Amino acid sequence: MQLIETNVHSREGTTTVEFVGEGGEKVSVCMVADDLADSAAITRAKEIMVQLTAFDIDPVQQGNIDDETMNEEAVETNGFTSEARS
Question: Based on the number of CB atoms within 10 Å of its own CB, is 34 exposed (0-12), middle (13-18) or buried (19 or more)?
Fold first, then answer.
């Protein structure tokens, strides 16, 4: 995906970062966060996407990850903690 635009939208209690690609592709990351500067929100969204790719999940088993496994792999970065949600 060739990134052409990044948008940050904040609402009460959440911040969403939307990455827009050349062919109209969009990837959005919604975070529980208040009052993040745009640059901090974009950095955090990128960190979340890197963490997702680090799981290296077999697509066949993707829907079968238990909370214990996810919590063991949760990473704390820059004061934020990423955890699995039920």
Answer: exposed
Q: How far is CA 36 from CA 28, 62, 64, 70, 84, in A?
A: 16, 31, 33, 25, 21
pTM: 0.63
Write down the H helix ranges in the chain: 38-54, 67-72
pLDDT digits (tens, 9 = 90+) for 53-66: 877 666 555 555 55
Closest C-alpha to 24, from 3, 47, 8: 3
Residue 5 CB neighbour total at 10 angstroms: 10
